[in-house]
């Protein structure tokens, strides 16, 4: 019987990404998406109203609220946050 090697990762993003850079990008996009989704949900807007406030289409809001991270660039998420009157703050820390 052969033994199976189990690989452990610091986060799910590290497991999904091919490089540390890609994992870092996924982590930041996921955090922005969570915060934008919370703003939208806390506002009580319909998806159509949220789309109008964010300057995007209703299907794009649906993708955001469902966490479809591959459909959003970091740039697009920063633009959506700005459309909602939010300022994105970036902090660097040692890995």
Number of helices: 5
The helical percent reads 55-70%
Strand content: under 5%
**Please, what is the average pLDDT?**
88
The CATH class label of the domain at 19-83 is Mainly Alpha
Uncertain segments: none
Report the C-alpha radius of gyration, rounded.
16 Å
Question: Could you state the CATH homologous superfamily of the domain at 19-83?
Answer: lambda repressor-like DNA-binding domains
The biggest sheet, with number of strands, parallel, antiparallel or mixed sense and barrel status, is: none
CATH architecture of the domain at 19-83: Orthogonal Bundle
Number of strands: 0
Distance between the termini: 38 Å
Specify the structural class.
mainly alpha
CATH topology group of the domain at 19-83: 434 Repressor (Amino-terminal Domain)
**Shape designation:** elongated
What is the H/E order? Answer: HHHHH
């Amino acid at each position: 019987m052969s033994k199976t090697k189990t690989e452990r990762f610091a986060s799910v993003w590290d497991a999904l990404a091919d490089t540390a850079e890609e994992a870092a990008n996924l982590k930041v996009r996921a955090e922005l998406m969570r915060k934008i989704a919370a703003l939208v949900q806390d506002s009580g807007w319909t998806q159509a109203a949220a789309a109008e406030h964010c300057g995007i289409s209703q299907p794009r809001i649906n993708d955001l609220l469902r966490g479809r991270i591959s459909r959003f660039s970091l740039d697009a998420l920063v633009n959506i946050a700005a459309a909602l009157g939010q300022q994105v703050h970036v902090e660097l820390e040692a890995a």
